[in-house]
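pipeline: protein-struct stage 2 | run 1193 | (S)-2-haloacid dehalogenase
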Amino acid sequence: MTATGPTMIQALIFDVFGTCVDWRNSVAREVAAVLPQVDALAFATAWRAEYDPAMARIRDGARGYVPLDDLHLENLDTVCRAFGVTLEAPDRLNAAWEKLEPWPDVVGGLQLLRQERIIAPCSNGSIALMTRLARYAGLPWDCILGAELARDYKPQAAVYRVSCAALRLPPDQVMMVAAHNDDLLAARAAGLRTAFVPRLTEHGPDQATDLEPTGDWDIVAKDFADLAHQVAGHG
């Protein structure tokens, strides 16, 4: 392994929604509790579908930076109108994004990785959202990095680079971990190392995307325990 390979990795930063936590079933659980009259999984899926278009307007410069908490709330209003429902306390349901269940391998895998490396989220979620989610899900981060530091959204290069800069590490000593190939493609373009961990049911049993790596990523792992094993094996 060369000096620029995984032997030099000092920190791993993680996509969170989908890679670390099961947003679909977790949000649907909260929807079912508040809006029992709707198809909770369909509502959760529709809410998530507003996520990227809302961020795109900010990435494209059509709107200044708005934290994801506020975008989620705006998107919730859009989805409620589409489903023909009214919420008396939308903030209560919006907090669903702070109560997402981790995939079974995540907490243990992160604990293994943290023994030797710095670990942190590099998410589009705000610092407040990521902090509360970490407390709920038991995610043992060393710190919170990501979009709010850059005041922009992935896959903009600034989000990855600012996260590395906050750790005072060059990008080639930081590994981005994600279940989404497009996230890794952008991270690699920003100079980071990359690790792919598939989440084959993030979008449900009929998922058709990100079932396998589409790039020559530095590590491809079956789960976070395997990721920790492979990272340890390189130094």
